[in-house]
Amino acid sequence: MHEMAMAQGVMEIVEDYAHRSNAKKVCTISLLIGEMAGVVFESLEFCFSALAKGTIAEDAEIKLKKVPLVGHCNNCGWQGHIENYNFFCPECGSAKVDIISGRELRVEYLEVD
Amino acid sequence: MEVPVMENILSSNDKKAAENKKIFAKNKIFALNLIGSPGAGKTSLLEKTIDVLSDQVKMAVIEGDLFTNKDADRIAKYNVPVIQINTSGGCHLDAMMVAKVLPQLDLSELDLVIIENVGNLVCPAEFNIGEDTKAVVLSITEGDDKPLKYPLIFKEAAVAVLNKVDILKFTNFDMVSARHDINCLNPGVTILETSCQTGRGINEWCSWIKERINSKKNGCNNNG
User: Fold this and answer.
1) What does pTM read for this prediction?
2) Looking at the complex, does the CB of residue A15 fall below 8 Å from at least one CB of chain B?
3) Chain-wide mean pLDDT for chain B?
4) Which chain B residues have a beta carbon less than 8 Å from that of A23?
5) What's the ipTM?
């Protein structure tokens, strides 16, 4: 249940940014979660709602955006979705494929009043 | 009003992990984060590792466990310094927990710290604790489908240990398929087959660790 630790991370960031912008209420929290991040969305939402009770973010709506797992081949320049977690380049077979996206665990933005 | 943020949810953990990493680097200690399911054989592998390496390198163990001291008690019998961290239900060690216990070790005297994480293939993969390298232990009784079911840890680990190979013939574990999936996830990863019962692969595993200790002593990068 590492989603609780993640929800705590979200809460820290939300309270910090809400405080900095003198917000009275946090309405929306937008999260970017990579396809390869080991996160169960429902658990994260559940944990966050438990933590947010009695805080500035109590009624906030959480928007979760799933970021696809995209790789880039340093050998031939191929870029695309990584299928079946196969990190060999589908074009040239090279093992030099870097992850461009899909590992995100980020708070993207807040909407506050 | 929209407030742009773009901040990593785990940033406070990552900052503390970076501090731990600096402490290990300053003392030229190779720090290994040992991850695997409950029952994969992490503690048995550690016992075998201590058997082989404790005469050659100065090592200490940090044991992560939800509630008990059982693993730490096993390691303490081998006369290496061992510290227990109980997560009280938490499913992984985080950087703060490790930072808290590091002052209990005489770091200037050590070459190797092995941190046995809580038995779990999911959560420990997300939380850096300041280690040089993650090692994943998968026992063949768990099934050859696990690398693709738990891809992150197999992507993050520099070495995958396939343990309990002495009972391979009693299982339907497909070694070719498991090796293929691990290699696709993490091209170039070191895959070792071990048995803590017969001792198979233990020397290769210990040599792999010793190479990393030596390159850390010589100031090389240990991320791979």
Assistant:
1) 0.94
2) no
3) 95
4) 1, 3
5) 0.89
